Task: inverse folding
């Protein structure tokens, strides 16, 4: 049994905003586009040529920057907590 198309009394049939070509970024993650046959393979990004010492320096710098951000967030949290305890709740 087929569903009947709903008819609304106030619908005049105009299209206010066409959603025909709208894509969601989440749809691309869930359903990636299929590869076309005969096309060239996409080039993968080339890894930088780093020596072992340079790679360690990059990793150390990344860890220190993450530690700095974590310390900043912790300091702000501690200041808010101190403000609430000694000023707001007195």
Result:
């Amino acid at each position: 049994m087929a569903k009947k198309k709903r008819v609304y009394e106030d619908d005049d049939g105009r299209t206010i905003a066409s959603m025909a070509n709208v894509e969601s970024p989440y749809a691309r993650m869930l359903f990636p586009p299929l590869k076309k046959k005969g096309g060239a393979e996409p080039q993968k990004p080339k890894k930088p040529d780093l020596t072992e010492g340079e790679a360690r320096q990059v990793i150390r710098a990344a860890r220190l920057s993450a530690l700095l951000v974590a310390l900043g967030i912790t300091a702000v949290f501690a200041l808010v907590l101190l403000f609430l305890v000694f000023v707001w709740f007195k």
